[in-house]
Amino acid sequence: MGMRQEENAKPRLTADDWARAALEALGEGGLAAVAVEPLAKRLGATKGSFYWHFKDRAALVDAVLARWEQHGTQDVIDELDQLPGPAERLQQLFTHVIDYAAHGREDLALLASIEQPAVAAAMSRVAERRIAYVAAQLRLLGVPDPLAHTRASVAVSIYHGFNQLARIAPRTLPATDELVEAVLTRLLEPPR
User: Fold this and answer.
1) Res. 118: pLDDT tops 90
2) Contact predicate 64/107, CB 8 Å
3) Confidence class of residue 176 from pLDDT cuts 50, 70 and 90?
4) Is this structure's pTM higher than 0.85?
5) Segment 67-77 mean pLDDT
6) What is the DSSP letter of 84?
7) Does residue 46 fall inside a structural domain?
8) Are the CB atoms for 109 and 27 separated by under 8 Å?
9) Which domain holds residue 89?
10) Overall number of domains in the chain
11) In a domain, 52, yes or no
12) Is 91 contained in some domain?
């Protein structure tokens, strides 16, 4: 009898399991999709499992935002920093973000909920971190400040625009390698 219970027992969900599922739901249906009951159903869990890990939905949203920041920015930066130089890092970064923008929906879903203070704060931190990283790589390549910061801001803006166009008019977009080349050419051109 004890063995049968073990065979039928579901693995216990962690807070990370809930946050991962909530991030997926965010990408599929926006911030409104980050709701306890649908997530519990999706995970085959009870609401009690949710409340074991989170005080309330706001705590889950905070966990989703933290996961999004970590996965979509810091993990990418950590991976890029393994590459030998700033030119390779920027090449890989733009290839990655353009590929992500073509299918990732989390950034747009969060942008649609920018009026939420926690979302606005997270998006601001991420934008600042992304701009700072690109500017640092440009400085390593000899682009002086404040031009490096300006170009990094333009690069992050291009990402957001590409992300939106990938949803609105995907057939208008150039191939990834063409877009990466165009962006890098402009970012790295000598100052006038």
Assistant:
1) yes
2) no
3) confident
4) yes
5) 95
6) S
7) no
8) yes
9) 57-188
10) 1
11) no
12) yes
